[in-house]
Amino acid sequence: MADKDILSELKQSILDFDEDAALELAQESLAQGIDPVEAVGVLADGLNELGVKFERMEVFLPEIMLASDAFKNALSVLEPEIKKKNTEGKKAIPIVIGTVQGDIHQVGKDMVATFLATAGFEVYDLGVDVAPSRFLEEAKRLGAKVIAAASLMSTTRPVQKDLIDFLEAKGVRDQFIVLVGGGVVTQEWADQIAADGYGQDAIATVNLAKRLLHVA
Ligand code: B12
């Protein structure tokens, strides 16, 4: 099978919510010497397309969940390969990431977490519905200098500001780099709440984190 075919089949496995195919095709892509970063990119495209279909009510929650499992299956094969390349001889920088309090959307945050991990960062995923106090507690406990907070809804976007206000109130704002992102977040919003950075997507977030942390 030619490279292109394998990649389009890999994307199709996400669109078909096919966990077994996703795993097998991920293995096959590595066997064929395809760059695992490129493979993760097409998986992400598949998830994005499904997000649009979900909005149009062409697919429903169970399918989104299955697709997310298929994504994770493929990642379990691809991620170690990417990490191997990216972490050779480097000390990993810890980052905590989560979706803010009141918000249970996780797919995009998981993608960002995965991309950061594959880029060599030590990612601690706090999950969803994370309160500002928990972000701080865990960042301190884990020695993380970066706190990455996702919001997918206009009702929960203010919690990103609450997080920054909370860090200010505790007198520790300058000890952390706060990254914000998620469907409803914009550069303007990030500027408005004085976040340190805004990541529009997973790849942009990796580049941003590398720039802010001066990682090559
Ligand atoms: C899937 C989905 C769900 C699933 C979530 C499943 C799960 N486990 O994640 C379910 C069905 C549970 C759900 C529930 C709800 N949802 Co919903 N959901 C979506 C949907 C269709 C897709 C989201 C998604 O996964 N996108 C795919 C990922 C890959 O994209 P992404 O999250 O944007 O992430 C990318 C970037 O934003 C960025 N990024 C993401 N996180 C981070 C973090 C950082 C730090 C950085 C830097 C970058 C970054 O990188 C990612 C990769 O490129 C969106 C619509 C949409 N198209 O966005 C609505 C949407 C977000 N939901 C919405 C709503 C209203 C709800 C509900 C309130 C519905 C309801 N009435 O019950 C509940 C909320 C419950 C709650 N308390 O959170 C609205 C929000 C409207 C708004 N503007 O406020 C949307 C926009 C749909 C709509 N048009 O109305 N939802």
From TrEMBL:
InterPro entries: Cbl-bd_cap (IPR003759), Cobalamin-bd (IPR006158), Cobalamin-bd_sf (IPR036724), Met_Synthase/Corrinoid (IPR050554), Meth_synthase_dom (IPR036594)
GO annotation, biological process: homocysteine metabolic process; tetrahydrofolate metabolic process
Pfam families: B12-binding, B12-binding_2
GO MF term list: cobalamin binding; metal ion binding; methionine synthase activity
Keywords: Cobalt, Metal-binding
Domain of life assignment: Bacteria
SMART domains: B12-binding_2 (SM01018)
PROSITE patterns reported in the protein's UniProt record: B12_BINDING, B12_BINDING_NTER
Domain B12-binding: residue ranges: 92-216
Gene3D superfamilies with a match to the protein in the record: Cobalamin-binding domain (3.40.50.280), Methionine synthase domain (1.10.1240.10)
Gene Ontology CC entries for this record: cytosol
Domain B12-binding N-terminal: 1-90
PANTHER family per UniProt: METHIONINE SYNTHASE
Protein family per UniProt: Belongs to the methylamine corrinoid protein family.
Protein name: Cobalamin-binding protein
UniProt organism field: Selenomonas ruminantium
